[in-house]
């Protein structure tokens, strides 16, 4: 639990670009504490002049940062990581205030991985390499170079504001690019703090932050100085970013959410699965693009699993950041609360709410841990990303207890893949062969076996289909932020 939970809220946030704070021409965005629904500060609603100024700083900085050695970039990122770690309490307090996340979980589950991810990319900067060099034609030598792309425009979401900023900037900076980043309108605070912290170790203008709304985001991704644009957010936003980028063929990097299927077979450890699904379904109030929310249960374990999940849901506490028992806090905004409760309010007659399905009394955007059974594959609670603490459970094979194990497996794979998303999934079974067969057949960028949700910096995070393209984390992400050049020389 962090000790410095009393860091006072700033009265007014400012943009950070060109190495300094800048008041916006318009201070106009309310920033709300979602645990109380009270406005606690304001942030600039940046417009073209501010976006231009940030890009001009980033373009200038690229002349310096783009020519640093990998060792210099590594050292800068390590210093940023060390300083973030040393100031963790301050960042935890600000992140919890701006998102309503539990203080203890933010300190244990978000800050340490964020620091570790920065350190991973610091090291990765040193090992980026061209894949081949040699004489592929008589009399000539060829080699490939990995080069930074230039200035990168990035847009982040509100579910993990600090961590998403780090997933975006760390590979971009490690590869030698400079950045203009727009955080989500509701959660600008820690990204601005990060920019100021990082500025001590980076040439002026290397990492710039402008706050604002979707319109500001559109200005960031359509700016002519950006050579690559990257967004984590909704499918709608991703499509708009890809369309904007098409106008001058910018490179695009998209992480657009998911609807993770969780396949629980008859031979799975149901108790362990229920505990893990509860944790991975309600973590961060279910506002996680890999959340374990679409459970597909084999006929033999369906009823037991529904009962276990409902019991776990009833034992799961939601509360304000200071509540040490809270597994999760409020939803991010009044709009997100409306969206989540709307899904439950519109449930069809075939659905049954096994636990939750309501808003607790009191202020803030809280929603109770919810389990819904009886849904059919086409129901919107199954097809659409709810992004809230709602777990749905369906039978792998509806109404046919006599199906063979092979039929159940084949049907489960079809059902799991019957989605426009393709980010994450998990399979629960004691049969090693089945675990591997099903993993091979699932159309998702990540498959977990007998677990759900852990991430490591070394492994890629990114989806297929409408979940987008491009990878976060890992060497794949670093490569995404580079361009490949072939140099050929006559001998
Ligand atoms: P959103 O996609 O509108 O917002 C995410 C970020 O994108 C914000 O910074 C926003 O200002 C920016 N943005 C939106 N439209 C843009 C555009 N055309 N050009 C540039 N930037 C743009 O998300 P939302 O409306 O806040 O949330 C809606 C749903 O999106 C959620 O319920 C959830 O399903 C999904 N979502 C997914 C993730 C994820 O991790 N993939 C994160 C947040 C939201």
From TrEMBL:
Any one Pfam family match given in the protein's UniProt record, by short name: Aldedh
Taxonomic classification: Bacteria, Bacillati, Actinomycetota, Actinomycetes, Nakamurellales
GO molecular function: aminobutyraldehyde dehydrogenase (NAD+) activity
Family matches, as CDD domains: ALDH_ABALDH-YdcW (cd07092)
Domain Aldehyde dehydrogenase, chain residue ranges per copy: 22-487
Similarity comment: Belongs to the aldehyde dehydrogenase family.
Top EC category: oxidoreductase
Active site: 255
Entries under InterPro entries matching the protein: Ald_DH/histidinol_DH, Ald_DH_C, Ald_DH_CS_CYS, Ald_DH_CS_GLU, Ald_DH_N, Aldehyde_DH_dom, Aminobutyraldehyde_DH
Protein name: Aminobutyraldehyde dehydrogenase
Enzyme Commission number, as recorded: 1.2.1.19
SUPFAM superfamilies documented for this protein: ALDH-like (SSF53720)
Keywords: Oxidoreductase
NCBIfam families: PRK13473.1
């Amino acid at each position: 639990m962090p000790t410095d939970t009393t860091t006072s809220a700033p009265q007014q946030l400012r943009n950070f670009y060109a190495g300094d704070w800048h008041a916006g021409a318009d201070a106009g965005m309310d920033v709300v504490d979602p645990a109380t629904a009270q406005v606690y500060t304001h942030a600039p609603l940046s417009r073209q002049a501010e976006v231009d100024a940030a890009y001009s700083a980033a373009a200038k900085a690229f002349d310096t940062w783009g020519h640093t050695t990998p060792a210099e970039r590594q050292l800068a990122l390590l210093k940023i990581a060390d300083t973030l770690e040393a100031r963790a309490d301050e960042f935890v307090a600000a992140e919890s205030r701006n998102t309503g996340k539990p203080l203890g979980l933010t300190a244990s589950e978000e800050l340490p991985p964020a620091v570790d991810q920065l350190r991973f990319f610091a090291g990765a900067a040193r090992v980026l390499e061209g894949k081949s060099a040699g004489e592929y034609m008589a009399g000539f030598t060829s080699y490939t170079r990995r080069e930074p792309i230039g200035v990168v425009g990035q847009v982040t979401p509100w579910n993990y504001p600090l961590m998403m900023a780090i997933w975006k900037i760390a590979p971009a900076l490690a590869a030698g690019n400079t950045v203009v980043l727009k955080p989500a309108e509701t959660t600008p605070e820690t990204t601005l703090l990060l920019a100021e912290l990082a500025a001590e170790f980076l040439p002026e203008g290397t990492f710039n932050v402008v706050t604002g709304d979707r319109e500001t985001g559109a200005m960031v991704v359509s700016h002519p100085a950006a050579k690559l644009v990257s967004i984590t957010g909704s499918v709608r936003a991703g499509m708009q970013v890809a369309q904007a980028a098409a106008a001058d063929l910018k490179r695009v990097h998209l992480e657009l959410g998911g609807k993770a299927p969780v396949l629980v077979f008859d031979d799975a450890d149901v108790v362990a699965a229920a505990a893990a699904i509860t944790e991975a379904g309600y973590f961060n109030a279910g506002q996680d693009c890999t959340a374990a929310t679409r459970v597909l249960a084999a006929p033999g374990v369906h009823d037991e699993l529904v009962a276990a999940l409902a019991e776990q849901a009833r034992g799961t506490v939601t509360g304000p950041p200071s509540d040490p028992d809270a597994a999760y806090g409020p939803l991010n905004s009044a709009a997100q609360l409306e969206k989540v409760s709307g899904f439950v309010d519109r449930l069809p007659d075939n659905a049954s709410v096994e636990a939750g399905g309501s808003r607790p009394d009191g202020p803030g955007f809280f929603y109770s841990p919810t389990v819904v059974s009886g849904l059919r594959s086409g129901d919107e609670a199954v097809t659409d990303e709810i992004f809230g603490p709602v777990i749905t459970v369906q039978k792998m094979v509806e109404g046919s207890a006599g199906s063979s194990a092979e039929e159940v497996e084949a049907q489960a794979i079809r059902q799991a893949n019957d989605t426009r998303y393709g980010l994450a999934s998990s399979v629960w079974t004691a049969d090693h062969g089945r675990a591997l067969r099903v993993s091979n057949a699932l159309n998702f960028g990540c498959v977990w076996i007998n677990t759900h949700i852990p991430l490591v910096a070394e492994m890629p995070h990114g989806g297929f289909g409408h979940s987008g393209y491009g990878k976060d984390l890992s060497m794949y992400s670093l490569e995404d932020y580079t361009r490949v050049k072939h140099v050929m020389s006559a001998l």
